[in-house]
Amino acid sequence: MLIFNCTEAASNFFSRVSKGKKITPVEKPPSSVIEDDEVAEFAEQWLVHAITVQRKHVLFVIHVQTRYCMIFADAKKADVEGFVQRFSERWINGLMRDGGQHDLLRWVDGETMMERFQESCCEYVFYKRGHRGAQKHINEISWIFEDCAAEWGTLPSDEFSAGRFDGDMNHTPRSSKGHKDYYFPDEEMIVHWLRCYGGLDDSAVQAARERRMEVVREIRAFERQLAQEAQ
Description:
6-stranded mixed beta sheet; alpha/beta; globular; two-stranded antiparallel ribbon; 18% strand
C-alpha cells in the first residue's frame, strides 16, 4: 500500500471546496508518529509537501525510509488519481533507468517485478501527519529547487527534465536516524526495490549493491579522464 503522509500544505492541496463543503481524501492517521504504525509488508511510507513556485503548485514527495525523493512541478490541485498515476510512473521509470545505467538488470525480472508492484501498491491512502527528519530533507531540496527554477526561468518542462533533478537530489549523500553513516537515497531505494519487488534474497541484494557501487566508481573515473583530456 502507498501511504502518503501529508503536511498541512499538502492536505490543502489535495482538498477542494464544493458547495461550501470541504472535500478531502486526507484521513486521520492510525497514529501520530509514522514509526508507530503497525508494521505491514509492502507499506510504503511517503511524506508529501506542497509549495508554490512561479505561481504554480509543486509537490515534493520523499520516501521516509530511504529519503528517495521526487518533485512534481505544475501539479493539478485536488487531482488525486492524476497524482498517484504520475507518481507511480515516475518512481518505476526512475528505478528502471537507474538499474539500466548501473548494470543491475541481470537481477531484474521485469514482468514479475511489475506484478508484485501492482499487487502491493494498487491501494493508497492519504493521512495528515508529518515527519520531522523527512521534512528537513524536503526543506533543503525545495530551497535548491527554487534556486534552480529562478536560474532556469521556468519549471521543468517534462517528466524527463524533472527526473534529472530527482536524480541529482537522490545522489546527494544524506544522514538520518537509523543510519550510522551517510548514504545515497538512490542506492538505498534500488536495494529496497530489489528486495521487496524483485524478490531477491540478502546475498543477491548485496551482489547487486556491490555491482552498482563498482559501476559508480567506473563512471567517476571515466568522467575524470574526460576532464583531464579536455584541459
